[in-house]
Structures are given as C-alpha cells and as structure tokens.
Amino acid sequence: MIALVAGATRGTGRGIAVQLGAAGATVYCTGRSTRAGRSEMDRPETIEETAELVTAAGGKGVPVQVDHLEPEQVKALVERIDREQGRLDVLVNDVWGGDHLFEWDVPVWKHDLANGLRLLRLAIDTHIVTSHHALPLLVRNPGGLVVEVTDGTTEYNDDHYRLSLFYDQAKTAVNRLAYALSHELRDFGCAAVALTPGFLRSEAMLEHFGVTEETWREHIPKDPHWAVSETPAYAGRAVVALARDPDRMRWSGRSLDSGRLAREYGFTDVDGSRPDVWRYIAEVSEGGRQADPGEYR
C-alpha cells in the first residue's frame, strides 16, 4: 500500500501515518516542520519523527517537507511518488495548522481578518491543491481511497456553531470536499470520505492540560468529558480499516467518525477501549442522558 498523509507532522495526521505503517504501508509524511526549522505553529514535532515512527511500526516512512499552499511543491511531491512507486493507493488530506489563528466566540467583524483568511487557506485550499495534483496518480488504479480529516461530522456541524465563523467554515467545508470528491472519483472506482476523530489526546492537548499519555486520566476530575478521549492512533486504525475493506465504496461521500467505524470494523484504541465521543455528545452532553462517560469507552 502506498499512502500520502498530507499534514503528518503531529496529531491525527501522525496517528494515521503510523497506523498505516503498522499495516505495512509506505507512507509519504509531509508537513512544514522539520528538524531544520519549525512552521508558524512553532511546535517541536517534525515530519522526520513521524516517518521514523512509521518505519518502527513496520512500514516505510518517507518525510518530505511540503507547504501544501504551494502548488509547485505539491506537484513535485506527487511526481516523486510516481517516480519511486508508480502508484498511490491512499491520500489523507489532514493539513490544518490553524489552531493559533482563530478566536473563540468572537464575531466576524471583531475577528482578525488576516488570521481568519489565513486559516481558511490552510484548512481548505491546501486540501484542494493536494487533491488537484495527487488524484491523477490515485485514479490510475481502481480501489483508491481519499480521506478528508476534519472536526465534527456533517450532522453535528450542520446543527452547531463551531467557535467562530472562520473555524465553522473550515470544518464544515472539509466534509463537503469529501462529498464532492466522491462524485468525481466514482467512475474511477475510488472512494472519498470525511473522517473526524473525537476528543483527541494530541500532543498539544496533552500539553495544554498538563498531562501525558501515561497520566491523561488525571485531568478527568476537572473535565469529565475527557474520559471519552482517544489517541490519534484510533483515527489511524479507522483509516486502515477503510483501506482494507473491499467494499469501501459503500462509505464514499459520507461523513464518518472514529467511534462509528470502530463499532463497524471491531478495532479498538491502543488501550483496548472503544471511545464513542460523538454518540456520547448526542446522548449525554447534549441529550441529557445520565451516564458515566466511561460507559462510552
């Protein structure tokens, strides 16, 4: 299996890349942060680290520094994949990089306009630029899979205001990208889905709450919802399950979440649990059901 994870530096992208590696895939891990220098997010994670984790998991990780807003860089990346592999089986559009750009609960007329527009470019334009250049390689063979990573299912996002106009547009638009791509890929026997993780125990979130992956439960007394959180590997296992499913076309065009796919395919998170965040939100945090969050693991 040959995969490109665009935005593999950290978080969900890294989790997906590593799990594809565990499935034996060759994974091109792209992003802007390398050991030679950080992106504007100014975090320590690098694409080289991700590629090493992919290889350690059993695959082959290939780090490539790419700014996915630069079409020529993306074009060169795809040409390299074609030259070295001759095919592309899985494209994961996970580029984001906008956490430092949006302002929570700030109306559009007060929000920094330059930051908001930059966020939209990072969240949406990057995915379109990457698809434009990568899909001609992916559609050479039937059975290809495109995964658009976002925050929130279509059902949830359609009924909720997502923090700010800019964040709201970014996360709802990516769901729609998957729907549109599913129509354009259908005649080639390739599928496109949108995938959202739940409460993600990313590097940034663990740091924000002052815990580690080993001590994450210490934050639960302060925020009971955190009990339903998941590792980035969980979404990664969802992507692997989709890629291995010969009947994956049944999902094409749909908005999916890691918990739902875990129920469907039977995989678990790394601790053997099966977090189901979006069902928990619907039934407990918003639905009023009295339940221990642990019941949704």
UniProtKB/TrEMBL annotation:
It comes from the Bacteria. SUPFAM superfamilies: NAD(P)-binding Rossmann-fold domains. This is SDR family oxidoreductase.
